[in-house]
Design a protein that fits this description.
Length: 219
């Protein structure tokens, strides 16, 4: 059983109070920091570039969990690795859900000395990617449509989590199962019961007492 990890999403950080919120985060029991990269094409929003990641790298020792919501992760992955990413996760849909393309990109990322994983949009079945599970350090399940913070939790996505949990046991693998979207004081329990061991939490962490909220998620 993997240790439970909370990965607060800086998409929801209060940028008028960055210094104080990062201080609280660094003093909290969070071990990861979730960094959403949006290109305005794969998803309609635009978020952060590599220079912002470099700034976070200077300000924290937390593991940097980078989620590429971009049309061309093959181009952007090396840029964000150079900027300080510890983990790169990209969307299967950006590779046309093509197993060969996804596998090749996972190998390229791994060869650059960082952890790797893939994620799917809510409408994409997870079962098609069973052959890739032995290659990854993590699979991210989106429990909202990617591209916007503050959406409601899609409970039906927990079926993907259960499938991943069972496959991990069946195949004797050790990848992490992360969930992103709508995590709060109620939904996190459902995510854990389904088999998640890594929780991305944005608004719920940064709009409340950061340290207390993270401790609550770890109970």
């Amino acid at each position: 059983m993997n240790e439970l990890i909370i990965s607060p999403s800086v998409l929801s950080l209060d940028y008028t109070n960055t210094k104080e919120q990062m201080k609280e985060l660094n003093e909290s029991k969070a071990k990861w920091l979730h960094f959403d990269v949006m290109d305005g094409h794969f998803v309609p929003n635009i978020s952060f570039g590599p220079d912002i990641l470099k700034a976070f790298k200077k300000g924290t020792d937390l593991f940097l969990d980078v989620h590429l919501m971009v049309s061309d992760p093959k181009f952007y992955a090396p840029i964000f690795i150079k900027a300080g990413a510890d983990m790169i996760v990209f969307h299967t849909e950006s590779q046309d859900n093509d197993l060969e393309k996804i596998s090749s990109l996972l190998d390229e990322i791994k060869a650059q000395g960082v952890q790797c994983g893939f994620t799917v949009k809510p409408g994409t079945p997870i079962e098609s990617f069973e052959s890739l599970l032995s290659k990854v350090d993590m699979v991210l399940i989106m429990s909202v449509e990617p591209g916007f913070g503050g959406q409601s939790f899609m409970e039906d996505q927990l079926e993907k989590v259960k499938w991943l949990y069972n496959k991990r046991t069946e195949l004797n693998l050790n990848y992490r199962i992360e969930i992103d979207g709508g995590i709060n004081g109620d939904t996190y329990k459902k995510a854990l019961e389904a088999g998640c061991d890594t929780l991305v939490a944005g608004s719920y962490v940064f709009k409340n007492d950061i340290k207390e909220t993270i401790e609550g998620l770890l109970r």
